[in-house]
């Protein structure tokens, strides 16, 4: 019954679970001041898991395993590696968080959420999909409200939970209707069942709308974006980074698989809906970002806008489109984690998060300022950073599919983006600290930060310059959808 | 035998009542109760579709059982977060939690 393929298909998840168990057993034996080593254990363990998965867990031909619950293919595998990479960076950034870094539970919750995200990327069944979405979300609710002594963190967790449970239930109602109409929960059988059954356009529209509520919340697109700035601002910064990257990418992994595989017959319907949502999301995200004074809120609105750009690839509904989404998310994950990492490194020393507090940062730590410049230029979409190539591919997919107007909206929005990203850099490079000598207020980087930020910036530059291998992997992943 | 549509209408009604509760009530515990009603509506849907469809296929029942389990986990975490907010702020009214806004 239990074949090697089955084992290989969930190898990363088995190892993540084992790592979580080890963490749970070992952590109580450590003394209070050693507890932050749980971060080294998590990051190191996950790094080993990535290597082991790359060596032994590679998929061959796409196969359905574990009773059709899981699809073992390159799309899921590529996303899994991305999520695990994001979790390594998050664990390292979490280590020196003043209040959360020394708590083993934080790393355990991170691993639990990662487990759910990995399964989201490979789920081939609505039951599995719902279960994995909740496995990914519930630990994140706790992590957002992790700082019990902090009013803003508890409020962030509370809001995230209330919105999250509501929308996931609405989505679940959509799943139950699909199950009723199609008579199956298997995503790969849905397409033919829904094609033969005469599902009216109105019903199809309402079911798709119900599902989009839940997934739109996950990827934070307008009109389901209102939670994102509040939650990012209130939750611990590394958690906000994880929410805005891995959690969003997991939502996209589900959208791509579900819509491309299960609803190809309704493509004219959902591409129009998503095209409109994409245009609105980009515009609203960018316009609201302009007026922000808190750097975490700025990044929250920028991440909303980026979900809009990535949606262009989904709207294209082509192989290039899917490949460009995967590539966009890879570039976006490293870039945004770098941005949140810099914010975390800065606020750990200073305790400040407002944009004006960044005045004179380039003199306080030139390297950190340079990393921030790299992250923000990549978010803007400037060569030679990853964000540039990613945008090119997404826009190319849009043009190829005939959505020229959407691409024009995207380009106009990128120009708005330049304004507020460079406005933030203005504080870092051009302004000075008022009445203070910057030399006396350095911002030292601890070792975990140095490692995490160095790896991330290397990723941002590598994706932007040597993009051929990354794109061919994304393309191999996209090929599995058609 | 009662037609399937009756169950679906019941579930849709229950879902709407739950959704109204979530949107209209200000107390966090009442909001969570509304979500529970919505989840129960989903369960009615799932079990009804299973009973009137292919009974040999267990997906509907399994789905319903998994929804119970997830709902329980969600409420446990939800109440814990409500308590953590209550300890800090002495309120569970969603509107009064307004530190974070643009």
Short summary:
With 482 residues, chain A is an all-alpha fold.
Structural description of this entry:
The complex is a heterodimer of chains A (482) and B (102). Chain A has a domain of 220 residues. With 482 residues, chain A is mostly helical. Chain A contains 20 helices and 2 strands. In chain A, strands 1-2 form a two-stranded antiparallel ribbon. In chain B, helix 1 packs antiparallel against helix 2 and helix 2 packs antiparallel against helix 3. The N and C termini of chain B lie far apart (55 Å). The model of chain B has no long low-confidence stretch (mean pLDDT 91). At the A-B interface, helix 6, helix 7 and helix 10 of A face helix 1, helix 2 and helix 3 of B.
Topology:
The complex is a heterodimer of chains A (482) and B (102).
Chain A: H1 4-9, H2 11-26, H3 37-56, E1 63-65, E2 70-72, H4 74-95, H5 104-122, H6 126-144, H7 151-182, H8 187-196, H9 201-219, H10 227-234, H11 237-262, H12 267-290, H13 295-316, H14 319-350, H15 361-364, H16 366-380, H17 386-400, H18 404-429, H19 447-465, H20 467-479
Antiparallel strand pairs in A: 1-2
Helix pairs in contact in A: 2-3, 2-5, 3-4, 4-5, 4-11, 4-14, 4-19, 4-20, 5-6, 5-11, 6-7, 6-11, 7-9, 7-10, 9-11, 10-11, 10-13, 11-13, 11-14, 12-13, 12-18, 13-14, 13-17, 13-18, 14-16, 14-17, 14-19, 14-20, 16-18, 16-19, 17-18, 17-19
Chain B: H1 4-24, H2 28-52, H3 59-89
């Amino acid at each position: 019954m239990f074949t090697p393929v089955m084992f290989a298909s969930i190898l990363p998840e088995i190892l993540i679970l084992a790592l979580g168990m080890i963490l749970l057993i070992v952590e109580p034996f450590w003394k209070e001041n050693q507890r932050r080593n749980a971060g080294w254990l998590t990051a190191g363990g996950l790094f080993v898991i990535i290597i082991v998965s790359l060596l032994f867990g590679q998929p061959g031909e796409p196969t359905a395993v574990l009773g059709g619950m899981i699809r073992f293919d390159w799309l899921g595998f590529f996303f899994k590696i991305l999520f695990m990479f994001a979790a390594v960076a998050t664990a390292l950034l979490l280590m020196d968080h003043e209040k959360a870094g020394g708590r083993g539970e934080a790393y355990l919750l991170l691993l639990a959420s990662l487990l759910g995200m990995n399964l989201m990327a490979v789920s081939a069944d609505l039951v599995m999909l719902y279960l994995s979405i909740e496995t990914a979300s519930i630990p994140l609710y706790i992590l957002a409200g992790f700082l019990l002594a902090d009013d803003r963190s508890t409020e962030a967790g509370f809001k995230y939970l209330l919105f999250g449970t509501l929308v996931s239930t609405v989505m679940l109602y959509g799943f139950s209707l699909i199950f009723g109409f199609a008579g199956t929960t298997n995503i790969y059988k849905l397409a033919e069942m829904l094609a033969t059954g005469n599902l009216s356009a109105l019903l199809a529209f309402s079911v798709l709308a119900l599902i989009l509520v839940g997934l739109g919340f996950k990827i934070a697109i307008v009109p389901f974006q209102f939670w994102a700035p509040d939650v990012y601002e209130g939750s611990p910064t590394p958690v906000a980074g994880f929410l805005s990257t891995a959690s969003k990418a997991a939502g996209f992994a589900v959208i791509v698989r579900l819509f491309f595989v299960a609803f190809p017959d309704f493509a004219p319907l959902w591409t129009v809906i998503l095209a409109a949502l994409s245009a609105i999301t980009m515009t609203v995200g960018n316009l609201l970002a302009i007026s922000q004074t808190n750097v975490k809120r700025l990044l929250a609105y920028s991440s909303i806008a980026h979900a809009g750009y990535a949606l262009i690839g989904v709207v294209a509904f082509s192989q290039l489109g899917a490949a460009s989404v995967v590539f966009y998310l890879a570039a976006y994950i490293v870039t945004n984690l770098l941005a949140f990492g810099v914010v975390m490194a800065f606020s750990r020393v200073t305790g400040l998060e407002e944009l004006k507090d960044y005045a004179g940062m380039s003199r306080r730590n030139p390297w950190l300022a340079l990393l921030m410049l790299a992250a923000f230029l990549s978010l803007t979409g400037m060569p030679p950073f990853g964000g540039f190539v990613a945008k090119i591919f997404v826009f190319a997919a849009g043009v190829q599919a005939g959505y020229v107007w959407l691409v024009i909206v995207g380009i106009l929005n990128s120009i708005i983006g330049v304004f507020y990203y460079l406005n933030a850099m203005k504080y870092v490079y051009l302004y000075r600290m008022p009445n203070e000598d910057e030399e006396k207020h350095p911002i030292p980087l601890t070792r975990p930060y140095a490692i995490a930020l160095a790896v991330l910036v290397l990723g941002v530059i590598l994706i932007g310059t040597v993009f051929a291998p990354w794109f061919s992997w994304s393309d191999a992943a996209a090929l599995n959808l058609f | 035998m009662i037609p399937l549509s009756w169950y679906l209408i019941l579930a849709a009604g229950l879902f709407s009542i739950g959704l109204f509760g979530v949107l209209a009530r200000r107390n966090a515990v009442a909001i969570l109760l509304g979500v529970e009603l919505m989840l129960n509506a989903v369960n009615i849907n799932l079990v009804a579709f299973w009973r009137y469809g292919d009974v040999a296929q267990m997906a509907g029942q399994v789905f319903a059982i998994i929804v119970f389990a997830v709902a329980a986990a969600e409420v446990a975490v939800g109440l814990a977060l409500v308590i953590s907010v209550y300890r800090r702020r002495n309120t569970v009214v969603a509107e009064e939690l307004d530190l974070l806004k643009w």
